[in-house]
Amino acid sequence: MMESSLILAFMFVSLIIFMLSGAGLAFVLGAIAFISTILLWGPSALIVAVLNTFETMTSESLMAIPLYVLMASILQKSSIIDALYDAMETWFARVNGGLAVGTIAICTILAAMTGVVGAAVAAMGILALPSMLKRGYYPPLALGAICAGGTLGILIPPSVVTIVYAITAQISIGKMFAAGIVPGLILAGGYIAYILIRTGLNPELAPKPADFEEVPLRVKLSKLKSLILPAFVVIGVLGSIYAGIATPTEAAAVGVLGAAVSSLATRKFSVSMLSESATDTLRVTAMILWITIGARAFISTFVATGGADSLLDFVETLDASRWLILGAMVLILIFLGLFLDEIGIILLCVPVFLPIITALDFDPLWFGVLFMITAQMAYITPPFGYTLFYLKGVLPEGIGIGQVYRGVIPFFLIQVAVLGLFALFPGLVTWLPEVLAANAR
Questions:
Q1: If we measure between CA atoms, which residue out of 143, 174, 146 comes closest to residue 159?
Q2: For residue 157, what pLDDT is reported?
Q3: For residue 263, which of 117, 48, 75, 5 has the smallest C-alpha distance?
Q4: Which of the four pLDDT bands, split at 50, 70 and 90, describes residue 127?
Q5: Is 346 exposed, middle or buried (0-12, 13-18, 19+ CB in 10 A)?
């Protein structure tokens, strides 16, 4: 029987090699875990992987994921986003960088409605990007605003990524949702402030329309009716959670009902639309569950071989500041974001990092928000940031991926600054969950 230390080395070397090869993460993790288990304990030990898989597939908490994805898919096909953009274009047309500011505002609303990044980025790429380019906006600014705004769906509830983190870290999903609200709004405010300052200093980056006609206030107010359906969905989901009426999983079902009613109100509901939404949901859910199964098998083997204990002992013997160790973990997360999707990073790193966070006397809830921000960074970081690929599919002729890369750099730096802000002032993250918990007593 091979030494456990050699097995650990084999696991991580194999993981790096296969990830660089481009193989699917779920099957890489699962295969490495199965081979390591057989080498250590023999084929009969694979029953543990079977039990872990059964536990994953019957998890009530994971039921929230397909429901939230279905809600997002229905909303994406119900024309609500089109009406929202029309309203924002009317209200922000005369503001410096107004269309970009409106794009961030819509992405914030979509984040609170769906929690799915792809829906916001694809919709804004189709609706907002042509309008901004037609007005003469600097392409990298327009592209960066869409990419960065879309990532707000990771942090602002109801976020599918947050659900995966909460389940993996064994933290209340409701508390994680509450912890993401203020940071998400601050981040959106940072994006808007950057756009306003930069276009104020250089108006040529976002010129105002020369043929603009002032829209009467009555018309502007009438456009705000497009906010009614989004507000209906958001209040239904988050309101039912924080009022104590429903659990986050049950609230997901409320969200699906709200999305269906919204699509009926916009006269977009049909059997074919529901079928397409169900197919999208099946595809996304299957991907997440396969990665979850592979990651749990990998982490179970890692823990069983003493890897987690060895790593914790190593950290405790380091003569280094706990903040330095936290910074090293954040850098690892950002680096992994260059190659892995956020679900894989969570399932791979959280079971390893969380005992260290607890041992260093950090709040796991607070660390979860830092984790979500690094996931946002991963979404806009070249070469494999998901928003870059979502947007690449709708880029007009003459706009290359290089301009997208240039556009996301300032927003990436804003994310770094906000990450530092929350690291220095944890109360910005924890005060709302504490207030809600106190009121619930």
A1: 174
A2: 84
A3: 75
A4: confident
A5: buried
